[in-house]
């Protein structure tokens, strides 16, 4: 009986989780008429690709390209700068190291909405509003979560590896690049996947800092589809499907790295 209840609970949870994605898929292939004449959980007969064709024939591919560029830039910056910062917090000894680290990690408790206005004012004073630099700079140098993740992994590596490298005459940078980083591939893969997902789904900061078509990303473009009277929900769902496909593919193929991030941050 316990096993039956367990499986029933898991099935119900799976249905509740998957249903919104199924709704997006079904609605994306409905016409405006089918949207109002069929139940939301039933497919349109016959299905239509007009919504996808309309979006992909306009500016939407450009927004996808902008999102891809932003995601690659943020992921690259996160991997580089986060690794150096995490290694310093994990292995180097300097006054106030632990206090500085925990103060930095404590910023994760500050809501993003609280920092948006100060960040925008700083970007405005630097004349970086509506530019790629203004879009990327606040988050390309690393995040508290990423540094915490990499620090935990560095601390799990044997200190004897560094001592052996120092005996062989290796400097600090050589130890990091040639000894530690090859051992950090699982953690780096985890950080890369998490950064790609968060960057692709980023909405609030791109919405505030950009207004030009040249820097508009896919999440902002989706929000713009809802402006006005007589919203075409089928078209919005088609745009949502386009935005969802890369993320679903990443989760399916790299979910073990996402699960591993929980393990790395939860264990010493």
TrEMBL record:
The chain crosses the membrane at residues 7-29, 63-87, 99-123, 135-154, 233-254. GO terms for cellular component: plasma membrane. CDD domains: TM_PBP2. Pfam families: BPD_transp_1 (PF00528). It is a multi-pass membrane protein. One of its GO terms (biological process) is transmembrane transport. InterPro entries: MetI-like, MetI-like_sf. The keyword DNA-binding does not apply. Coiled coil: none annotated. Residues 64-254 form the ABC transmembrane type-1 domain. It is found in: Cell membrane. Gene3D superfamilies: MetI-like. It comes from the Bacteria. Keywords: Cell membrane, Membrane, Transmembrane, Transmembrane helix, Transport. Signal peptide: none annotated. Belongs to the binding-protein-dependent transport system permease family. PANTHER family: ABC TRANSPORTER PERMEASE PROTEIN MG189-RELATED, ABC TRANSPORTER PERMEASE PROTEIN MG189-RELATED-RELATED. This is Carbohydrate ABC transporter permease.
